[in-house]
Amino acid sequence: MLLIKRIVLDVLKPHHPNSIDFTLSIAEKSPGSRVELTVTEVDEKTETVVIVIVGENLHYDTIADAVSSMGGSIHSIDKVEVENEPD
Questions:
Q1: Contact at 8 Å (CB) between 35 and 27?
Q2: Which sequence ranges form a coiled-coil region, renumbered to this chain (predicted)?
Q3: Which CATH number do you get for residue 75?
Q4: 9-63 residue pLDDT tens
């Protein structure tokens, strides 16, 4: 069974919701995960952030939906870690 264990995303987000609420919302959609957000660039209306999500079985589509529901857009998937666990 193939399981996604880590995803690193480059995301453009609005200032609101703030980084704490943005991170909490992503974590809420991925039970059992750990989410880390780092702001790498700020301009007048947006922030570029790197989001690292680590968990036992991450679902990219759910994470992408959470990002877009808060007005964010995923620029790129910068890193993915997948594990092949025996069934």
A1: yes
A2: none
A3: 3.30.70.1340
A4: 999 999 999 999 999 999 999 999 999 999 999 999 999 999 999 999 999 999 9
If you search the block for the tokens 């991925």, which residue do you land on? 30
Q: Say what the alpha-carbon torsion angle 48, 34, 58, 3 is, to the nearest 10 degrees.
A: 120
Helix (H) or strand (E) holding 62: helix 60-69
By residue range, what is the domain housing residue 14? 2-82
87 domain residue, yes or no: no
| Residue whose pair of structure tokens reads 């036992």 in the numeric block | 56
Looking at the structure of the chain, the number of domains it has is 1
Residue 54 lies in a domain: yes
Per-residue CA distances from 44 to 5, 15, 33, 48, 70 (Å): 34, 9, 31, 12, 18
